[in-house]
Amino acid sequence: MKNFGSTHSESLLPDSISPTKSMDSRGFSSVGRRSFLRKMGAAGASLAPVAALLLKQDQALAREFSRGLTRGDVDILRFLAAAEILETDLWQQYNEFGGVQDNEVPGGSGNPAYTAALSNLDSDMAEYIHDNNDDENSHQMFLNAFLQSVGAEPVNLDRFRTLPSSKATGAQQIGRLTNLTQLTLDTSWYVRYRSTENPDLGVQFSPPFPIVNRPAIPLDDNDTPPNTDLTPPITTRNAIRMQAIADTAAFHFATIEQGGSSLYGSCIPKATSLVVLRILYAIGGSEVAHFQTWHDKAGNAVSTPLAPLTDPTAPEVTFPDLNSSAFGGEAFSTNLIMPEPCEFISHNLPACSIIRPTLSKNAGPIAVVTFLANMGLFKGQTPEFFQTLQRIATAANEARRRLASDDDDRLEGF
Ligand SMILES: [Fe+2]
Ligand SMILES: [Fe+2]
After folding, report:
1. pTM tops 0.90, yes or no
2. Is residue 171 part of a domain?
3. Which of 36-66 are b and which e, b meaning 16 or more Cβ less than 10 Å from the residue's Cβ?
4. Number of folded domains in the chain?
């Protein structure tokens, strides 16, 4: 096995796990589609048994995984593991308030008014939030386990779980990695995916409306009492305030997941090993599925009967009716959630329906860190957190695909 500098070894494996057990895609015994959190006990549960299981299952498989793997491949997977840990942290907060708190995605107790406001966007929102949380956790667990299986160092951001939890009903009182209370969202993806033009060919897009410095989760029970009636039509101050928070969340969901979709796409041309390419395509596809879902739900926040809606604490933040004549047309229509065919690769080729952007400068690791920081997602984090994230992102950003003839260029020991 190649040595990627990890101090971990196969000895992590619990001997009690039988290699002949039926296994699901995450390396857990097959006891249910979304069983891993139940098996692990918590979203932040130890990774060691997963990696250990993978290793013990078949060390020959681990050798196969590491064949052709480059330092760049490892750097890509390490950044993606970090990104997935951050995603899991934010989705966990959403699930505690407005998802389904069960033994698959434990933690939190739910906020009735917030859940009702999300339900006004789609009655299945709670399940979707739960499943998105489940998926992100599976991504980070898998990526770190894979890294360990090939002798590479997994990513652990636990020392940065220092941000406070919301004081509103529903939240666990634990340290967080991400801050969902002061978000400034670049929702230009809404226009970008309706356009025939492509940022990778130099076109810039503006958000359809501003969401600046706003909470996407309830802050406390004085601001948004959890027993507020959210039954439409929404007329009371407290109900409008809570709906504005839920609407912000709906746009945040899609903003995050379109970024993830582009990030994975940007990493594929940098990867060398086939198994890493398979991982990038397959997890990236899951991010696209999330984006498509949230794109649809965000549209319900900017169409009748909920829209227009103005946050009573911030008159400048209005969720407009994007189907109204003031906007109008294909650049805004809320039912146009499939990627409009756009320019791709060259102005001279036919328009193509694609994920975009996928160029590294627009969607790669460094671009994503900037995107998330500008969003306010890390407000309150320490300088060490930013330095760590930047270091992991820089390594991934610099990864380059190696051709067979480049074998000699691989670093010693790989
Ligand atoms: Fe993910
Ligand atoms: Fe995601």
Report:
1. no
2. yes
3. bbebbeebbbebbbbbbbbbbbeeeebeebb
4. 1
